[in-house]
Amino acid sequence: MIHILSDQNSILNEFISEIRDAEIQKDSMRFRRNLERIGEIFAYEVSKQLEYTSREVITSLGVAEVPVLKSQPVIATILRAGLPLHQGILNYFDRAQNAFVSAYRRHHKSGKFDIQIEYTSSPSLEDKILILSDPMLATGLSMFLTYKQLLGNGKPKHTHIVTIIGSVQGVEYLNKHLSEDEYTLWAAAIDDELTAQSYIVPGLGDAGDLAYGSKL
Hints:
Layout: E1 2-4, H1 12-20, H2 28-47, E2 52-58, E3 63-69, E4 74-79, H3 83-92, E5 97-107, E6 113-121, E7 129-133, E8 136-137, H4 141-150, E9 158-167, H5 168-177, E10 183-191, E11 193-194, E12 200-201, H6 207-212
Parallel strand pairs: 1-10, 4-5, 4-7, 7-9, 8-9, 9-10
Antiparallel strand pairs: 2-3, 5-6, 11-12
Helix pairs in contact: 1-2, 2-3
């Protein structure tokens, strides 16, 4: 199942317009903050799909029955671009455990690239809800390999994959390589094209560079 949040009019689209805007992107602090705010919106939407249990809360005037999360999810992201989005999700699931995976493109002279994973930090994921986020879903390969890497720490009960800008190709890749009951995809927007270098068009550029500066 895929949820595309920009299909409905909401303040989310204001934040999307700003992270796409080449002029506003020059303010890296605002870019990071917008990624974080979008993460908070995703967290709220994903929370509607989770399991709840009733809890008695003692107030100064009586007792209130309140539905609360049955268990906390594990929140995971891909370093480094995913950090602001991850923080936004963590702002709402503030008692969740966290996982981090370092994955990057290693480019070759031929113009092709492969995905290198060099670092993983994760709690047990066995029978837990996993929320895995990355701002961009281009080819889908980085997200798929990161997910497979995390499975070394146990198989989640269900995985919610969160991305801000995805491509049609990336969505199709995940649909081909993951079973329908294994994950739910959440995207702010889906764009139609990829460049020869596998960058999303119109997209927004390199989210990691825009958030934290260019790299060698």
